[in-house]
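[step 3/7] fold_predict: job queued, chain A
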Amino acid sequence: MARILFVMRGAAAAGLAVDAYVHLDLAHRYSPIASSILSEGALFRIEAAAAIFAALLVVFWRHRAGDAFAWLTAAAGLAAILFYRYIDPGSLGPLPDMYEPIWFTSKVWALIGQAIAITALTALIVGQRGSHSGRRLGPAAGDSPGQA
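[step 4/7] structure written:
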């Protein structure tokens, strides 16, 4: 069981690392575009920082809250990729118009990393819930060894 948890945490961290790398690598290409309060480059750096922080939580903290933060980070990134690939909403409040109706290698790698992280983290979160619910640590008060 410990080996499976190790592999799942490694997969989640690797997926988040790929997500962070891609967003940091692309951020400078989108920085000059500042049609709103936040540029796409700034948003890419924020996504990268969140993914790095999430990967560190998954590896070093190993807590349900950290796993949930990491899942939300990966899911938000994946949702943004798919949303802005297929829908052109224009500028949304302080967000710039990020519609980009094409697939390119870096975008696909970010999507793959996020999908791997979501899959691994979903298994970790569901497994944590299942391992804690209904588990008895010992006999209930008043139970004799023969009554369980």
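[step 5/7] annotate
Residues 2-130 form one domain.
The longest helix spans residues 2-30.
exit 0
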